[in-house]
Amino acid sequence: GGGGGGCLDAGGVAAAGGGEPTVAGDGGTRGDTCHLDVVDRWGNMLSATPSGGWLQSNPVVPELGFPLGTRLQMAWLEEGLPNSLTPGRRPRTTLTPSLALRDGVPVMAFGTPGGDQQDQWQVHFFLGVALRAAVRGGLDLQGAIDAPSWHTDGFPGSFHPRGMRAGSLTVESRMPPEAVAELRRRGHDVLVGGAWSEGRLCAVARDPASGVLSGAANPRGMQGYAVGR
Question: CB 3.0–4.6 Å: which of 25, 100, 111, 126 could bond 35 by disulfide?
């Protein structure tokens, strides 16, 4: 039989006003960002982070079948800045669907919703996968996703009102207490969040040598699935 794998994760940032919308109390996902990774038995991979529709202002173009992006909201109206709204500019964007290659061959697709936290959470995950591969000789996608995560708000946010918290570090409560204490001793403004509050990652991978497919999904947030056939 054929082989295939994929995962889907949908979820918003926990804090209201953090750029991405907060999930409604009834679990509603109207207008939310999601992430999807797919790999087939031949090694074709897809990593996508559909977003922008949560502004509810970008209609579907009938001839195209999809809406135009609305990431220009991340441009600044103040003149003279790298992100100023000017023709020809490419403003900073938080969308970071990712592919990892080994010797030029795609081996893993991964990503997450989460505004400015996307790059941060994905770096933690990628380093976790790389460390496990180096130590154990194999990919442990789920272990890297489940590991306690963190992020900083020490840089101005991409979304209005572009707030920041200098020296900040938000960690999950599963982080070892001694690590939290050491971070505070070094001067970090540490906020301890929920046990499973950081990240919405999912990932798929294919071993080029064996052809074995693997997938993993996030236990955090609302919905995360890893499926294969």
Answer: 111
| Segment (H or E) for 120 | helix 117-136
pLDDT score at 30: 58
- Nearest Cα neighbor of 51 from 74, 63, 35, 38 is 35
Q: What per-residue confidence (pLDDT) applies to 204?
A: 95
User: Rounded distance, CA 122 to CA 113, Å?
Assistant: 10
Phi, psi of 38 (to 5 degrees): -140, 140
Backbone φ, ψ for residue 207 (5° rounding): -80, 115
- pTM for the full model? 0.79
CA distances to 52, 69, 110 from 66, in Å: 11, 9, 23
Tell me the torsion sign for CA atoms 43, 44, 47, 53: negative
**Which residues in the chain come in under a pLDDT of 70?**
1-32, 52-59, 68-70, 135-139, 222
CA distance 92 to 29: 25
H or E element: which one contains 126?
helix 117-136
Q: What is the mean pLDDT of the chain?
A: 81
| Greatest CA separation for the chain | 58
Q: Rounded CA gap, 143 and 125, in Å?
A: 9
Domains of the chain: 4-51+95-228 (3.60.20.40)
**Tokens standing for 102?**
């080994």
Calpha distance 107→207 (Å, rounded): 6
